[in-house]
Design brief:
The complex is a heterodimer. Chain A is mainly β. Helix content of chain A is 3%, strand content 49%. Chain A has one helix at 62-69, and strands at residues 10-12, 15-27, 30-33, 42-45, 50-58, 78-82, 85-99, 106-114, 118-119, 139-141, 152-165, 172-189, 219-226, 232-248, 256-264. By secondary structure, chain B is mainly β. Helix content of chain B is 4%, strand content 51%. In chain B, the strands form four sheets. In chain B, strands 3, 4, 5, 8, 9, 10, 11, 12, 13, 16, 17, 18 and 19 form a 13-stranded antiparallel sheet that branches. Chain B is globular, with a radius of gyration of 23 Å. Chain B starts with a strand and ends with a helix. Classes of the chains: A mainly beta, B mainly beta. Chain A binds chain B through residues 5-10, 16, 18-22, 57-58, 82-83, 99-104, 123, 125-132, 134-140, 149-153, 189, 192, 223, 228, 250-254, and chain B through 41, 43-49, 51-52, 54-59, 178, 180, 182-189, 192-193, 195-199.
């Protein structure tokens, strides 16, 4: 039976996504050997196949993002299905969403799965219309970095794991969480920035006397994702430290300042 | 008036129409074209195919106005680089109760040209942002009659290095402004400010029937001042009247030439010059 784009409904741990592009790819690591006395080479897989699934999707509901946020620091496997193709032992690698003023917001997520994908029955085409989050309607609250408005944003988190196998078992026996980081990158016209609030370390560099005024302190930022009818879909939040700032300009243009705020995930406390 | 199945239709003749820019009635308007289009993204999703459409891109309109030069005053050069509003007002029997309106626009092109036997033209185009279309309220503007002063081809004065010994057939002056609107997250398609990319380029071209003119050697353009000259175009009122429009292009650089010869044709040469400017105010004060 033929399988088309219209059959590839994308579901992550029970949550349906409106993915405008999705791909799955997998490979297996082969162990090669050639015994003495023969003129042949043999190969066998040393572990089960591993693969990745990537999707770009429209953001239409809070649950689409919270499903991914809930996987921050989690070591339990989740299931993926892309139409008839599915994987049962998957972990979230990263999630990001970019915003431009006149554009539909595009989010993306990446997963690693362990064990090769399986193919089941082909779902029939679903029908729906959506009202996705849009940059023209979304709003920002960024006073902690001295920005009143932004011309673009990029919110993301990424995490890494170590998946261990045991002798005598085909399945991964243990998943060890390594680390995770949330980042928010914001670009604003310099006229919309209180420059001193974007100082990385404050006027006195590494001294602490600027704590909670300028320089090194945690910045609480949020972006409300809304559709063009101004309905709030989800709010992205971060509570982290300024780690970089850039200044750029083009001929005839005003200087654009870009700052990055990063928050390290702490397993015991988690991200807000 | 036409009566069709009991309904009355009335046309808008040209005497029912006039163009207002920043409260100024434009003179000599020959045509007005206004348009907008919604940039719809037809979205697709795996498992669904079409999931509807959504606006993605700038909400802008385009306006172009074609004019002949029939007056010594022109409000357009002073409005280059500034936000302007305007409208085409119309209505049957000069009712002036309809309009194609825009409240934020930036002129992005200006052109003047004239050929043998023509009245000089001065056209411009603009991009409109924000409200574009019906105004929503009746316009307070009204048509004001005026007496035209015509700038004809035979009464203009051209200052060039080649005009004395070669018959200039036409000139064409083009100014393009690369206006960049700045949008912010949450701005609902309304730009918060505008930037004009530099350099701002004016190209001026002439077509001549060559007598003495010989096209310069391109290799001399590597390091020579021969490719730079001062140009001026003075459009005078007919019958040797006073200047009603001038364009001054000092230090214009020759950048393009073309020679064309054929049986039965005059040998013609086209010359194109360019001037670069770093800001709009300098351009306006030096050129217009």
């Amino acid at each position: 039976m033929s399988v088309y784009y219209k059959n590839l409904k994308t579901i992550v741990d029970g949550q349906v996504y409106y993915a405008n592009s999705v791909d799955m790819s997998e490979g297996v690591e082969m162990q090669d050997f050639a015994p003495m006395g023969t003129a042949k080479s043999y190969s066998f897989p040393s572990n089960k196949p591993e693969g990745t699934m990537n999707m770009n999707f429209y953001v239409t509901s809070s649950s689409e993002i919270s499903k991914l946020h809930d996987q921050l620091g989690q070591t339990g496997f989740i299931s993926l299905s892309v139409g008839p193709f599915s994987a049962s032992h998957a972990l979230v690698n990263s999630f990001s969403i970019q915003g431009e003023p006149n554009s539909i917001l595009q989010a993306s997520a990446s997963f690693t799965y362990y064990g090769q994908m399986s193919k089941g029955s082909t779902p029939t085409q679903s029908n729906n219309t959506i009202d996705p989050a849009h940059g023209a309607a979304s709003t920002v609250s960024l006073s902690d970095v001295g920005m009143s408005d932004v011309v673009s944003f990029d919110y993301s988190f990424s995490q890494s794991y170590e998946v261990q196998y045991s002798l005598g078992s085909n399945e991964p026996s243990k998943v060890i969480f390594n680390d995770a980081t949330k980042e928010m990158q914001l670009s604003a016209l310099i006229s919309d920035v209180t420059f001193s609030k974007t100082s990385l370390t404050g006027a006195s560099e590494l001294c602490n006397d600027d704590l909670d005024t300028e320089g090194v302190y945690t910045r609480g930022l949020s972006i409300s994702l809304k559709d063009l009818c101004s309905s709030v879909i989800e709010t992205l939040e971060i509570d982290g430290y300024l780690t970089s700032r850039d200044i750029t300009a083009e001929p005839g243009g005003e200087v654009i300042e870009t700052v990055t705020v990063a928050e390290k995930y702490v397993p015991s406390g988690g991200c807000p | 008036m036409y009566n069709i199945l009991g309904m009355a239709y009335q046309r808008n003749f040209y005497d029912d129409q006039f163009v207002i820019i920043n409260s100024n009635q434009l003179k000599g308007v020959q045509s007005f074209d206004g348009s907008w289009s919604l940039p719809k993204n037809n979205m697709t999703a795996a498992g669904y195919e079409s999931v509807g459409s959504e606006i993605e891109g700038q909400l802008i309109g385009q306006v172009s106005v074609d004019r002949i030069i029939i007056d010594s005053s022109d409000p357009i050069p002073a409005l280059l680089g500034s936000s302007i509003d305007g409208e085409l007002i119309y209505g049957p029997n000069q009712a002036a109760n309809k309009s194609f309106y825009f409240d934020v626009g930036y002129i992005d092109s200006y052109n003047s040209s004239c050929s043998i036997g023509e009245i000089a033209r001065s056209n411009f185009g603009l991009t409109a942002y924000g409200n574009i279309g019906e105004k929503g309220s009746a316009s307070s503007a009204s048509y004001s009659p005026y007496t035209p002063k015509v700038a004809t081809a035979n009464s203009m004065t051209l200052t060039t290095s080649f005009g004395d010994t070669n018959a200039i057939q036409s000139y064409n002056l083009d100014l393009s402004l690369d206006v960049n609107p700045i949008y912010k997250i949450g701005s609902m398609f309304i730009p918060s400010k505008f930037e004009i990319a530099t350099p701002i380029v004016i190209t001026t071209s002439f077509e001549i029937f060559a007598s003495e003119y010989e096209i310069k050697n391109i290799m001399d353009g590597v390091c020579s001042s021969d490719f730079v000259e001062n140009l001026a175009i003075s459009l005078n009122e007919k019958c040797n009247g006073p200047a009603i429009r001038t364009f001054t292009l000092d230090n214009a650089e020759l950048i393009d030439t073309n020679i064309s010869a054929g049986i039965g044709d005059n040998l013609s040469i086209s010359l194109e010059f360019q001037n670069l400017y770093s800001d709009i105010s300098t351009l306006v004060s030096e050129v217009f």
